[in-house]
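Before drawing any conclusions, I looked closely at one protein's amino acid sequence and its backbone structure tokens, quoted below without any editing.
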Amino acid sequence: MGRRELREQIFLLLFRVEFNDPSEMPTQLQMFFETDNYEDEAVKWTEKDTTYIKDKYNRIMECLPELDKALNEKSENWDISRMGKVELTILRLAAYEILKDEDVPASVAINEAVEIAKKFGQDGSGAFVNAILAKFV
């Protein structure tokens, strides 16, 4: 699985956080890898893909309060509680990559976030995500 596909899978997993109690997330994590998640095609999970997704998901979850604080500071007049769940999830993933993941250049994190927003968000989601993430660099 390529980096873009992995990133989309992490986005899909993180999106579940918005709809489930934290105590339910271990079950959600297990179900995630047991179901098909990618454009109605069976996902062929390799051990490497599964490990990468789980590790990155766990690292993001560990610093979620810090990421949310940073997003609130950068998004003038937009508290994260007012953001759409798709956009918020994308912003959390990208903010993690910009602030914490040294393997991902900020420009790549922003570009990938905009592409995910265009694919999964509403009209204008890409521009919204780009505007907030641009304030991080």
User: Anything to note?
Assistant: The domain at 3-134 is CATH 1.10.940.10 (N-utilizing Substance Protein B Homolog; Chain A). The chain has a mean pLDDT of 91. The two ends are 28 Å apart (CA to CA).
